[in-house]
Structure formats: C-alpha cells, structure tokens
Amino acid sequence: MSFSMTGYGQYSLSYGGYNVLFEMKSVNHRSCEVVFRMPREWTRYEEGLRKMIQRKLRRGRIDVFITKELSAESNLSPILNEEVVASYIEAAKELQLRYGMEGNLQISDLLSLPGVLLKPEEVVLRVAAEDEAWDTTLQEGLGYALEELVEMRAREGSHLAEDIETRISSLQAYHEEMVQLAPSVVVEYRNKLRQRLTEISDGPFDEHKFGMEIAIFADRSNIDEELTRLSSHLTQCKQLLISPDPIGRKLDFLIQEMNREVNTIGSKAHHLTLVNLVMEMKAELEKIREQAANLE
C-alpha cells in the first residue's frame, strides 16, 4: 500500500479535570520530522510520544498540537497553600523578635497575600504534573489521532498510486510503439537516401559507400538498449506501487533514470513519430514526478 505524506488527525478526551485536544497534521518532507506544541509540564512525555509516531510514519513533517482547558465539570474550589501560610507566619514572628514590631497578622490580611490560595486551575495543574497516569493518557489520545492521520494518508496514497499506475500504463503503451517503430527508422532512412542519391547522380553511385553510410546511421540511431532499460524501469515502478515499504525516494530515482533514457532516445531519434512519442513520455514522467513527491 502506498501512503501520502499529507494527512490530518484529531481526537479529544477528558482526564484530571481537563479537556485535552490532540491534533496532528503532516506535509511533505525528506525525512520524518516530528514537532510538538504542548503544555510545558508535559514535555517530559515528548520522547515517548515521538517514538510512538515514528513507529508508524517514515517520512513527512508531522506537527503535533496538544492543548488543554479546564473542564466545566471539575468544580474545584480554591485550596489553602499551607506551606506558604506557614512561611508568612514565620516571617511575622521574625519581624516581632528582631525589630520589636507590634501587631497581629489577621486572617483577612493573610488571605490577601500572594500564593496563599491556589486557584482551581493551579490545583489541577499540580495534580496533572505529579500524576504519572498522564503518560498513558497522552499516549492513548495521541494514538487515536495518529490512527486517523494514518488512515487519511492511506486514502490519499491510494489515489496517488492509482494515478501513477495509469500514467505508467500510458508510458508502457508509448514504449511498445517505440519498439515497433525502431526497426523501420533505418529502413526509411535507407530508402530516402537511395532515392535522393538516384535523383542527384548521373549514373550508378557507390554501393559500398552507400552501405557504410547506412551502417553508421543504424549504429548512431540504435535505441535497443535504451528501450530495454526503460522497460525494466517501468516494470519496477509498478512493483513499487504494491510494496509495503516507503516508495517515494525509490520512485523518484526511477523517474530520473527513465528521463535519462527518454532524453537519449530523443537525441538519437531521426524520425518524427519517435520525437513525438518522446515528448509525450516526458510529459507523463513530469506528472508522475509531481505525484511521487507526495508519497512516503
């Protein structure tokens, strides 16, 4: 199965007083690059999440967005930060002893001091940062988003592979025309040259020199080797399309090789139909190259 490098996946879940949204999108890239954007307190889980993605995807830039917001169902009340309260009371005693300052620290004064009361989201954040179960929860949520992303890449890859296979079949048809046409190129040249020499000569021309000229032309215009290699490359392309491995780079290499063979045929071609076939093949190869650039 062929996979595209373009895709999108999304999943949401609720845990630890938060609604968490997982979003993934992937685009073309020469290797597998994974970029995370998520709350800082979860960065310790990043490496495990990255390996999870790289086991599924071989190529592409994958942007992962993990966002969270406090759940409306959390209904958490502010709590007293006892450590901070104790430190304020200790500081007040120190002021009394060291500087002889008088006065009592009132509860209303104490509650107005920074850090004494933790907001609901700060309470959840503390729990979330200390809860190791978040590792499993994040992997679960990302797994579902990743599954959706892979399914989309598979669908896109299937469409690309079908298009490429159709174009390869067109190339094979053009190749077959070239195979059938190639032997007639020398025959047509020989007939035209004989006719031309007959028209311009006063008498019989040198058959030996004539034969040498035909032999040289036949050698220079021979495209048998190019056609053989081209046929092999086309067969390999079709085999790649059903390979379970990433095929983008291999397909790109074969396209370059086929372009080389077609260009050589074009430089040797001394026949209008052959030249036209070369132009058609180059156009199809360019379209295949554009599509192959999207494959994993």
Report on the architecture of this protein.
With 296 residues, the chain is an alpha+beta fold. The chain is 62% helix and 14% strand. It has a 4-stranded mixed sheet with strand order 1-2-4-3. Strands 5-6 form a two-stranded antiparallel ribbon. The longest helix is centred in the middle third of the chain and has 68 residues, at 133-200. The protein is rod-shaped, with a radius of gyration of 37 Å. It starts with 6 loop residues before the first strand and ends with a helix. The model has no long low-confidence stretch (mean pLDDT 85).
Can you give keywords for this protein?
single chain, 296 residues, alpha+beta, four-stranded mixed β-sheet, two-stranded antiparallel sheet, 62% helix, rod-shaped
